Amino acid sequence: MRAMQTAATGMMAQEMNVQVISNNIANVRTTGYKRQQIHFQDLLYEHFRRAGSATSDQNTQAPAGTFIGSGVKTVSTGRVMTQGNLTPTEKPYDLAIRGEGFFRIRMPDGRTTYSRDGSFDLDAQGQIVTRDGYQVEPGITVPNNATSISINAQGTVEAMLPGQTAPQQLGQIQLVRFVNKVGLESIGDNLYIETAASGQPIDGFGGGEGFGTLQQNYLEEGNVQAVTELSSLIAAQRAYEMNSKVITAADQMMSATTQMFRG
């Protein structure tokens, strides 16, 4: 019976829905995480009679067609790129972006990745790096005798050095933005890479139009809303159960039909 196959596509879709929701909930405390949102589309339809087809020799037409769908499919699990809350950390190299930009991160193999996670620190050479030791571009080195570090909203890094009355400028942290940031591909570790859908990165700095500003001593929380995710989880569970009941009902109908023929 076709209903069983159709309902099975619904169960598979809701299974993936629950997987997306579970990933969101698991990352509720992940810095800079952007929640995923699943989208569905209906599958092809089989038409038995099309709307507007002739119903008699007098040119009368059917006002509505007769067609049956074949189920549902998952079409995307895109990111919701809304701003997360900013929380203070009291760590001088922690940075939060208030706006649309991304940090540019240089990987050990030379690739460029992008991130909203500003959990930065210094490596053994004094370079500003991520928690995994990846270089934050453009590669700023802090002198080992610096007494204090300040990073302004534009990303300019300044250090106070012994014997100096004015801070020394060390460089400016780069930001990038994308025409379609939802098209970025997640590779884990709070990192994204560009795709054909995202478009090429547009370089800039904090304070530039569309790039946002930086806030030192803060980090951006993930934008997951636990209440919303739990509500979605309940809805997905109910949808899964309804599809399973369709399969049960269709199986019972087939059994009844079989028994009639046997009788």
UniProtKB/TrEMBL annotation:
Q: Does the keyword tRNA-binding apply?
A: no
**GO CC list:** bacterial-type flagellum basal body, distal rod
UniProt-listed InterPro entries: Flag_bb_rod_N, Flagellar_basal_body_rod_CS, Flagellar_FlgE/F/G, Flg_bb/hook_C_dom, FlgE/F/G-like, FlgG_G_neg, LlgE_F_G-like_D1
Q: Where in the cell is it found?
A: Bacterial flagellum basal body
Its chief place of residence is other
Source superkingdom: Bacteria
Q: Which Gene Ontology terms describe the biological processes this protein takes part in?
A: bacterial-type flagellum-dependent swarming motility
What SUPFAM superfamilies does the entry give? Flagellar hook protein flgE (SSF117143)
Pfam families per the record? Flg_bb_rod, Flg_bbr_C, LlgE_F_G_D1
Keywords assigned by UniProt, alphabetized: Bacterial flagellum, Cell projection, Cilium, Flagellum
The UniProt record lists the Flagellar basal-body/hook protein C-terminal domain at 215-260
The chain positions of domain Flagellar basal body rod protein N-terminal read 4-34
Query: Residues in domain Flagellar hook protein FlgE/F/G-like D1?
Result: 96-159
Q: Which PANTHER family match?
A: FLAGELLAR BASAL-BODY ROD PROTEIN FLGG, FLAGELLAR PROTEIN
Q: How does this polypeptide assemble, per the annotation? A: The basal body constitutes a major portion of the flagellar organelle and consists of four rings (L,P,S, and M) mounted on a central rod. The rod consists of about 26 subunits of FlgG in the distal portion, and FlgB, FlgC and FlgF are thought to build up the proximal portion of the rod with about 6 subunits each.
Q: Which family does it belong to?
A: Belongs to the flagella basal body rod proteins family.
The name this protein goes by in its record: Flagellar basal-body rod protein FlgG
Annotated gene: flgG
